[in-house]
Write a structure and sequence with these properties.
- By secondary structure, the protein is of the alpha/beta class.
- The protein has a single domain, classed as P-loop containing nucleotide triphosphate hydrolases (Rossmann fold).
- The protein contains 7 helices and 5 strands, in the order E-H-E-H-H-E-H-E-H-H-E-H.
- The chain has a 5-stranded parallel β-sheet.
- The longest helix has 20 residues.
- It starts with a strand and ends with a helix.
Length: 174
């Protein structure tokens, strides 16, 4: 049985996590590899009901996503998780619990993320309508040693995807 792996996309809202996740998913699915995508917003809707946006609730949401990702990884699935996951300690906790884990830092300056903000979340956060927003009035703790860093303000989607695929090919020999 092929080893599974959780590929964890972390970064600010609007950095490009979901975009890269979807593009990598397509590339892996085309190769016939067992792959699953867990998007933070979607998973929160189903597994995070009742959770707010306090640090404790965010950490619990990430733990729940990590639990599902770990189950799939254990069964040989390549799991692509896109979630802001702003706190380094809980990302490290999830890494430890899953084992087969790689972090992709989807890095873009907050100013670029604000320009991409189709939901208007940054505007609401800056106006005080939305509290605890990562990168505005709540910290985002950037990964110190991600396996892959994608500078989505400087790279095209295809360049970032290629960087991730090359990492996976080396790690998994797929």
């Amino acid at each position: 049985m092929r080893n599974g792996l959780t590929l964890w996309f972390t970064g600010l809202s609007g950095a490009g996590k979901t975009t890269l996740n979807r593009a990598v998913y397509e590339r892996l699915a085309q190769r016939g590899l067992p792959v699953e995508s867990l998007d933070g917003d979607e998973v929160r809707r189903y597994l995070g009901r009742g959770l707010g946006f306090s640090k404790e609730d965010r950490d619990e949401n990430i733990r729940r996503i990590g639990y599902v990702a770990g189950l799939l990884t254990k069964h040989g699935v390549l799991v692509l998780v896109s979630a802001i996951s702003p706190y380094e300690a809980v990302r490290d906790e999830v890494r430890e619990s899953i084992g087969e884990f790689a972090e992709v830092y989807v890095n873009a300056p907050v100013e670029v993320c604000e320009q991409r903000d189709v939901k208007g979340l940054y505007r609401k956060a800056r106006n005080g309508e939305l509290r605890g927003f990562a990168g505005i009035d709540d910290p985002y703790e950037a990964p110190q040693h991600p396996e892959v860093e994608c500078r989505t303000d400087l790279e095209t989607v295809e360049e970032s995807v290629e960087k991730i695929i090359q990492y996976l090919e080396l790690r998994l020999a797929c």
